[in-house]
């Protein structure tokens, strides 16, 4: 008999989703920048705090 292990990654997904929403609101991104932020939100936050224009 084989054991089945079920893993839930709810915390990681919720953290990622929360940071994505924070990025959109904090940086006042347009709709398409918000869509792009799904993938590159750490870069956008770093560029904002470094003072570079993206």
Helix content: 55-70%
Label the structural class: mainly alpha
Order of helices and strands: HH
Show unreliable segments.
Answer: none
Mean pLDDT: 82
Q: What proportion strand? A: under 5%
Distance between the termini: 56 Å
Based on CA inertia axes, which overall geometry fits? elongated
Give a written overview of the molecule:
This protein is an all-alpha fold. It is built from two helices and no strands. Helix 1 (10-26) crosses helix 2 (31-50). The mean pLDDT is 82.
Give the secondary structure arrangement, pairings included:
Layout: H1 10-26, H2 31-50
Helix pairs in contact: 1-2
In short:
The protein has 54 residues and is an all-alpha fold. It is 69% helix and 0% strand. The chain has 2 helices and no strands.
What features would you highlight for this structure?
mainly alpha; 2 helices; 54 residues; single chain; 69% helix
